[in-house]
Amino acid sequence: MFNMKNFAQFLVGKRREKNITQGQLADMVGVSHQAVSKWERGESMPEISKLSDLSSALNVSTEDILTAMHTESSVPEAKAENKDHEYYALPDKTLVGDVCALAPFLSKEALTTAITEIAIAKGSGIAKILFKYADEDILREVALLVFATDTDKGRLDLVPYLPQEEITKLILNRYSSGGIGSMLPLLPFSKDFEVVDMIFKSIVSKDGNWNALKPVVSDLMPEVVVSNGIDYAVKHGIGCFGAWWGVLGYENIAKIFIGYCRHFDHSFRAWSDIAPHLGRADKRLILDELDKMKADGYNFNFEVNPLQLQALPADIRDKLVEFGVHPDARGVPNMNFSMGTPFVPNNFSEFEEYIQELESRIEELESRIDDLEDRLDDME
Fold first, then answer.
1. How is residue 346 annotated by DSSP?
2. Cα gap 266→51, rounded to integer Å
3. How many Å apart are CA 171 and CA 187, to the nearest integer?
4. pLDDT tens string 37-72
5. Which of 36, 33, 35, 32 is nearest to 11 (CA)?
6. Backbone angles phi, psi at 361, to 5 degrees
7. In this predicted model, what pLDDT tens digit does every residue of 166-207 receive, in sequence order?
8. SS3 at position 303
9. What predicted TM-score, i.e. pTM, was given to this entire model?
């Protein structure tokens, strides 16, 4: 005989262990979100044909699933009693301990009310204790109710349960009213590239730098970070990210480097700019880009400073050598790769270019110093 309640408890537990939503599980199994919601409420059971997919999605055996479907529930029958009347009789419905004791026995409506009241009165960080008793439908309703109020209590834990259109509305409303501080924590939850990109560009244009975005940039859509990172690097030089390497992540850094080099048509100078920082990037992506350049007919037959070639990550250095890059036989640093030999300008224009070159190198050195200071701080 099937035990839908026991299977529901089993399913909820395993899904949360995997840290996936009902919608994600539904996509993995090939059913509707509503079907998964009914399974977790104990209103229906999956078809036998779906057990294999469910087993793969939850990383459990089909035998475990079948056992959960047929095993008697470990929850005593007394716990099935509805205790809505006890909840509504509470003199203070915002006392989390009292509500938590009743939560497993509340109806969907009472549980929604309970979480909403506590979230409004004391913030979602406190109400989060009750989230484990609710399904996503309840939490979505709670989120909508709480954000519809004027409460100034924390509500960030409820943002993931809001529909995307509501998140977009909140972000734009707060941004347009000048509430940058209250808007930024919402930005990582948005999947709207156009909105996130617009706000990103607007903040950078206003401030002249990325500093305001630093607390959230690692959680933003990678496409936005990379696109804006390329633009910023082209304008300010790769060295401008010296203090950001640990924040941006290896993959984003590699994509910014690649975009930077593509912007300059893979000029030797562009690759020279990123060379000192390649250890910070995802080498797999860099190697793939080198392979693509080779396939597109890029000419790697040039000389470089032997010391700088040796300083590159081994697999990238070996790939470059394989494709034709070779150390300068004379051992003289290449002007495009380092400070080079003494320079005497022939005219004012050439002098200006040399000054710009020196300023670029100084900025790069400053960024490396910042990076070293960050590392020392981390070590302390």
1. S
2. 51
3. 7
4. 888 888 888 888 888 888 888 888 888 888 887 755
5. 36
6. -65, -40
7. 999 989 988 888 878 888 999 999 999 999 999 999 999 998
8. strand
9. 0.61
